[in-house]
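Researcher: Please translate sequence to structure tokens.
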Amino acid sequence: MTEPKPRATYGARAVAGLTGQLPNPYPRLLGSNALRYLQEVVESGLTVDMLTRFEQAFAEATGAKHCIATPGCTPALAALAAAFGFEPGDEIIVSPITDYGTLQGLVREQYIPVFADPEPGSVNLSARTIEPLLTDRTRGILCVHMTGLMCDMDPILELAQSRGLVVYEDACQSVFSTYRGRYAGRLGLAGAFSFDSEKTMGSDVGGCVITDDDALAERLRFIAHSRGAVQEPGFGRFHTEPGYALRMPQCTAALCLAQLEMIAEWVAHRDRMARKITALLSEIEGITPLPIPDYQEVYSAWMLGFSLDPEAFSCDAEAFGAQVSEAGLTGAGTGKYYLIPAACTFLGEWAEAGRYPYSQPPASRTYRYGAEACPTAWEFLQTFIRWSTFCEKYTEADCELAAQIVADVAARNRR
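Model: Translation complete:
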């Protein structure tokens, strides 16, 4: 019998064994009112409506008309996919460098993900890379603001408007990042956020969707909170559609509310520290940090990273990442698993077998997945090293230490 592979772990358990000289998010900093809000939930006998309080507070903080809170970021994006009500076999353009949570709702609603390569040297797609992939089956564009760096949204929105497409945002790593004065999640029809424990506004778990669209907000509450059910006098609940129970728990809402009260300070600090590290890394020959675009005023950085010039060093990225990790850059390493068309092996298997929705119909053509589907992304990830333990605990001295560790390893391995 084949030995089963270890299951993936998340949150504090995923970083429990990490060592190094730099901070990691755990134990998490929690807002000063966290215990008070949790106590309200307990003392009320679960009658306090902490969920609505958080939804109203987050909507106000982002300037959105509606906030629909969910148990996590994956459920938030799944609720959106369900609420749109596209047909099986319809196509959604999506960023290839992301996390499985971006994809899960599309798969479960039997939409077909079409991955647009990022711009060279970037983790994000663009209007230029999206346009050649548009077909008469394209229904939406899901933009991921990976690491907290925002996609160049205005050209994407202009392209989508010319084709009558929905644009929505995976802002799970970019809470309160700004693009030309507008918050992440506020540029398309809707935006989804993560409050999972490792994220910038980390709670125990949690997520939400924000939108200004009244009909979409009502649809989300119907599908995700009411399980697709309506009340009929004399009978009770009629489930007119297959909905979900994706309501944020009251205790999670209490923690999220407390974290929201601290987030402006934390994001401003992350932005300063991320820009400082970026500047320091830029001075190291053969090292290229992720570029912070001019259109982004606030970089709510959840993850930092840099690329190696393979001609400059005698080792590959795997070895370089291991060395900087061993030298104290907590949690550093490559992130090839972020290439979702390669990481989600079931996509390739389903497409090759013609499994529904890849059968024709409802699919209109043959699809191919794997690393070759997004060669620019795959090439980028061969030399990219990231560390997802960057957090609001960093000081200027930590930034200097991080850059010095990279510089020392670079010097040891320079050709």
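Researcher: Any highlights?
Model: The chain has a mean pLDDT of 96.
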